[in-house]
Amino acid sequence: MHRFGILATAFVFFAVATVSTGLEPDSDGFVPMFDGKTLAGWVTTGNWIVEEKGVVALHPRPGEKGWQRYDAYLTTERKYKDFVLDLEFKIGPGGNSGVFLRVGDRGDQVKTGFEIQILDTHGKANPGNHDCGGVIGAAAPSKNMAKPAGQWNRYVITCQGYHLKVELNGEQIIDLDLAQSAVKDRPREGYIGFQDEAKPVWYRNVRIKELH
User: Fold this and answer.
1) CATH number, domain with residue 139
2) Which domain holds residue 11?
């Protein structure tokens, strides 16, 4: 490829990386997914708000319950294909949320994407795919790395082709070939979303690096 073509391609990648928040990549190539003040770049009808220090929080409205209110999920405006997603989350006692990946239809994240579970399961022996760190319906975490309710946890999630890796609090707990899993027919590109289970949840330091 000519030098001009290389520069043009690099510019396109840079432009795509910054379009959602208007923020530039850091030295590691990660772009913040929130601007620290608003929910710009995201779509929801749920009661998600930005608190102090840029923490994104869900405070369910009175009477809200259940997980089938898909429009209340906090979902990106644009789609992502191959990426590393780095974030921190916190839940209260009995808390429940989830990180949805490659969602094809915002109207049904459960059936058109796949979910990395967030659940108050600290200390549980032999966690299953519905426990914290599991890929719902597809893979259980290799170990229980969830911290107690009220403490911050960190996910580093890598999606590249059909390969999914999940780290929780510094330990790899998922190494999955999506093509051989129960979610093999889900899209390879889609929206990223946080689940509204009508239970409080907090996210911070959410950033992404797209892989090309």
Assistant:
1) 2.60.120.560
2) 3-210
Q: Total structural domains in the chain?
A: 1
Nearest residue to 206 (alpha-carbon basis) of 195, 189, 190, 193: 193
Does this model's pTM top 0.85? yes
Q: Give the burial class of 180: count Cβ atoms within 10 A of its Cβ; 0-12 exposed, 13-18 middle, 19 or more buried.
A: exposed
- 30-49 per-position pLDDT tens digit: 999 999 999 999 999 999 99
Q: Measure the CA–CA gap between 94 and 74, rounded to whole angstroms.
A: 20
Measured over the CA atoms of residue 140, residue 141, residue 147 and residue 150, the dihedral's sign is: negative
How far does Cα 53 stand from its chain's mean position?
20
User: What is the DSSP secondary structure assignment for residue 7, as one 8-state letter?
Assistant: H
CA atoms within 13 A on the CB side of 143: 9
In order of 21, 43, 188, the CA distances from 16 in angstroms are 10, 18, 18
For the segment 173-202, what is each residue's pLDDT rounded down to a tens digit? 999 999 999 999 999 999 999 999 999 999
